[in-house]
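Can anyone check this?
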Amino acid sequence: MADISQTAPWREMGLRDSEYELIKARLGREPNYTELGMFAVLWSEHCAYKHSKRLLRTLPTKGPGVLVGPGENAGVVDIGDNLACAFKIESHNHPSAVEPYQGAATGIGGIVRDILAMGARPVVLLDSLRFGPPDDPKTRFLFGGVVSGIAGYGNCLGIPTVGGEVFFAKPYAGNPLVNVLCGGIMKHEDLHRGGAYGVGNVVMVVGHSTGRDGIHGCTFASDVLDEDSESKRSNVQVGDPFMEKLLIEACLEMMACGAVVGIQDMGAAGLTSSCAETAARAGTGLVIDVGKVPMREEGMNAYEVMLSESQERMLLIVGSDKVDEVKRIGAKWGLHAAEIGRVTDSGNLEVLHNGNLEASIPVSLLAMGAPEYTPGAREPEYLRKTRELKDESVRTPEFSEMKEILLELLASPNIASKEPVFRQYDYMVRTDTVEGPGRGAAVVRVKGTKKGLVFTTDCNGRLIYLSPKSGAAWAVTEAALNVAVTGAKPLAITNCLNFGSPENPEVFWQLKEAVRGMGEACQALETPVTGGNVSLYNESDGVAIYPTPIIGMLGLLEDIEKRITPGFKSAGDLVAVLGKVWGDVRSLSGSEYLEVVHGMVAGDPREPDLELARGIIEVLNEGAREGVFSSAQDLSEGGLLVALAESCIHGEGGARGCVMSPKALGCGGREGIRADAMLFGESNTAVLVSFPANCEEQVSHICRRQNVPLSVIGRVQSSALAVETCGGLRVLEVPAEEIAQAYSRGLEDSLKS
């Protein structure tokens, strides 16, 4: 094995000098070039979580329904009737920044294979996207490419993209976020894991051939974006969704016939990660010959084959008596199914190329030996200024201005209908979608049962920026309430932690505080973390993104026919708030209203009332079982008045309006109450519901039992959204048509302007 040169190639591969010295010390020698490349990819931030692993250990990961938690390809949660749901969210941020179509497309391909590797059939996709201001030509280019990539890959796979979210803000201008979630369904006995068990078992590669695309993709994802990033397009993988569709069917058939002992997606770090991680989990070793790997380019050496991130490939550990069966199934689906090595008891990953030894590394060192860093943490200086949000610093609009404010908010690209996005997605394929994108959390039926699975992704980066701990707790709470307004019980979360450089003490403080807030909320709401992804170094030209820990939440409806749906149903229904709307200036912290109307990103968001949130969830679950609620809508971006407007927009029949008469408007009430904060504040532990007048006592009884405040604030009517004071003075009235028009055209107009 040849020695490396003295030109510090490890630095070019993303390793620190200290890490290179550690490798030499633990190996007892200098690594050769192939070995160095293998260490570089598996010790990258993207694969090794060097700055976050210690923090992640503090999160709650166990619960009565958790079958598989963090550490495997995806988390798995019991949903009853001997069925389980595998789900996970991951990022493809940097690839999407330089090659938006392929970056987003291969992000979809990768997360689908993670679910497949657990033995589940992938059945849903969601996408959580962040871009710069929509009037920026670069944003439009990235937005168009990313959405097209998600649609192009997901639609071809025949997996419905049922939900997600899109948010626009200046800090994402140079570094967009592309987070994608996939969920799958399986029987308990079909659960598979990514372990190379059984000495003598055969190592096989199934799927696409291997090329030079994506080499060092994970080290590229572990660095900040700069003016040289465009030159790294070759680090972005190229996807083939039709090949992936075949791969899904083939792998499911291979697992069903009992041929598969272990299975692992070949994603980040390609063959290196899949081999090292499967062997490390099992405490075994592997010997492979890369000359036996099907290749689509001539002259590839061991370094290139081990680091290639070519898509649509899976690593299988197969019993020696099942190899021919795997090959037969592979041929049936038109896929390569190549025998490349065997499981050993050596504890090493030995790489041969046509019989010549190219690398020999202990798998524990390669997969689990990367150093863990705990850099200094310092509260950001900007918080001293942003926390100074006082009543006198924000002008309270007159009621005569409220109509235009509401229409402006509904047309804001962060609130407006995302139909320009989701109309490109096939969200009805497989015919199991019960509630698709555009109306809150997505609902899909579980075939053969009465059950429904509910999925959502949520996070307001502005709130995390202003208060990482409370903002992250809000993200978990919002996701849980978004699931619960369907009547579903929140079960668990998967997270994608998108932050800037952890080597910046202020960014690391944001990360620490966000993980702390997330952990407290998950503990209180009994929604354990089953896995996810950490994406650091999200910076461009020295500017970090808003800290953005995306929460993907899974919920369960025991009877899909008893779900609560969005939108008012019948004129005369009562409209009420479950929980508490604060209505003071602090509730405007980080709100869309504050930025759009006043040009401010400021405030000190209060923490969510987690006990109250638990009570609201119980009220919604019980109310769904008893069938008392006509509709439910969570309060998030835009606050109470926007939630009322959206309930009008999604209303059925003539129920396209509402008369609201909150006690805090014109009737005294608590000290410090402001009309704009009551109507547009977002820091509220509350949900908007409607129900028939004859159900009021029943709803009140449920709320009293759970100690949840119930405030009836109005009635459903036709044709207009109106606000009255307690004295009956109508201070705001907006026709339903104007509301719907502003909401439907907002995003499209923003992208055209």
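Reply from J.R.: I decoded it. Residues 1-5 have pLDDT under 50 and may be disordered.
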